[in-house]
Design brief:
The structure holds 2 protein chains of 2 kinds. Chain A is about 60% helix and about 15% strand. Chain A is an alpha/beta fold. Chain A has a 5-stranded mixed β-sheet, sandwiched between helices. Chain A is elongated, with a radius of gyration of 29 Å. The two termini of chain A are about 30 Å apart. Chain B is mainly beta. Chain B has one domain: ATP Synthase, domain 1 (Sandwich), CATH 2.60.15.10. Chain B is built from no helices and 9 strands. Chain B has strands at about 5-15, 15-30, 35, 45-50, 50-55, 65, 70-75, 80-85, 85-90. In chain B, strands 1, 2, 3, 4, 5, 6, 7, 8 and 9 form a 9-stranded mixed β-sheet that branches. Chain B is globular, with a radius of gyration of 12 Å. Classes of the chains: A alpha/beta, B mainly beta. The interface of A and B includes residues 39, 53, 212, 215 and 226 of A.
């Protein structure tokens, strides 16, 4: 009987210490999520300004830019998958990867070859474990992405896009990221990054008349300089959204893990008390029985 | 546009907001050379070169901002400067976050 109490005591102690870890991680995620959301907010002015400029150029001048032309036939597509570096974020990475798998399937069924670009160690581990090839992977700052990372990714993707099909280039680029809707809702989503469709996503309804700009230098060169920045800014926005989603998912996962640990501790405490009481009762009845036996003799 | 109008200037970097306020003059370096913008300038969309950007606010000392590439747009006295990276140098009247 004494052994059983000891087992429960050990279980209570270990659950209490893991609960401390869950609590700490929850608090860290909660404190970081505010920062992540304010970073999303502070990247908005740049994104808006660049979107406005690109739509101004695109709507006022008519010419084809390699980044905006639809290829006649898409034979190979690249997919950039954004996941987290670390786990303990519930189904965050798993659902992004699931979304990516769906996209890979779809592209394959359309007869396109696929190439994978990854962000985050979780995606890397997933591909490594399945021995699937990927072109390039960026890790290390998924919970607080830097603009430089977005720029590197943009450069790699643009290089690949600029390469001919025959030399291993791609003709279409998709991005899988997790959109941050609210603290409780994050949805994995897919956008097609290239070829570009320049549309103002948020407020196409408010028909703001764009001024007739003079360009310096020629519009083609302006567009040449603008479009890569536009892509970088979209990638950066996707990275920031993903990081906010990751933190929200982690916070929620850690909260429910902590709650479950509390529940377990309660259960084990009850069991321990029962075991202790049973032991006392048994000891008592043994003493009483012993005394009775002595008296009877 | 009235001649005594002011420019409404906004500087944003890729991941943060840099500065905004009213100004009487903005000078920037584009790939074709330097451009000075006064109130009432016609709409322009130009590419910024690496270099310094000088803003003369309505009140206070002029502000020098170092940028390394980007672009800016001017329309109806509203100047939006979008820089890849911007640092406020010289007389710092606004805080740089």
């Amino acid at each position: 009987m004494g052994a059983q109490i000891r087992v429960y005591r050990q279980k209570i102690a270990s659950t209490t210490s893991t609960r401390k870890i869950f609590k700490a991680m929850e608090l860290i995620a909660t404190s970081r999520i505010g920062r992540a959301r304010s970073r999303v907010a502070s990247s908005l002015p740049y994104a808006n300004a660049i979107t406005r400029a690109v739509s101004a150029v695109a709507s006022q001048t008519e010419f084809d830019h390699p980044l905006t032309t639809e290829p006649a036939e898409v034979r190979r597509a690249a997919v950039l998958v954004m996941t987290s570096d670390r786990g303990l974020a519930g189904s965050y990475s798993a659902s992004a990867l699931k979304q990516a798998e769906g996209l890979f399937e779809k592209l394959k069924s359309e007869g396109k070859e696929t190439k994978a670009y990854l962000v985050g160690r979780k995606a890397q581990a997933y591909f490594d474990f399945r021995r699937r090839p990927y072109e390039q992977v960026w890790t290390g700052d998924t919970d607080a992405p830097k603009f430089e990372t977005a720029r590197e990714i943009g450069k790699a993707l643009l290089d690949d896009f600029a390469t001919d099909y025959a030399d291993g280039g791609v003709e279409e680029i998709h991005v899988v990221y997790t959109k941050f809707r609210s603290m409780v809702v994050q949805e994995p989503s897919v956008i097609r990054l290239l070829p570009l469709e320049v549309v103002d996503e948020q407020d196409s309804s408010d028909a703001e008349l764009l001024p007739l700009y003079e360009y310096e230098p020629e519009p083609e060169r302006v567009l040449d300089a603008l479009l890569p920045r536009y892509i970088e800014s979209r990638l950066f926005a996707a990275l920031l959204q993903s990081s906010a989603s990751e933190l929200a998912a982690r916070q929620r996962a850690m909260k429910s893990a902590g709650d479950n640990a509390t529940e377990l501790i309660k259960k084990y405490t009850r069991l321990r008390n029962t075991a202790r009481q049973a032991e006392i009762t048994q000891e008592l009845s043994e003493i009483v029985a012993g005394a009775d036996a002595l008296n009877a003799s | 546009m009235a001649a005594n109008a002011e420019l409404e200037v906004e500087i944003v970097a890729a991941d943060h907001f840099v500065w905004s306020g009213a100004a009487t003059m903005v000078r920037a370096r584009t790939s074709d050379g330097e451009i000075g913008i006064l109130p009432g300038h016609s709409p322009v969309l130009a590419i910024l070169e690496e270099g310094e950007l000088v803003i003369q606010p309505v009140s206070g000392e002029r502000i020098v901002v170092g940028v390394d590439g980007g672009f800016f747009s001017v329309d109806s006295n509203r100047v939006v400067i979008v820089a890849d990276n911007a640092r406020i140098g010289g007389s710092v009247t606004a805080e740089a976050r």
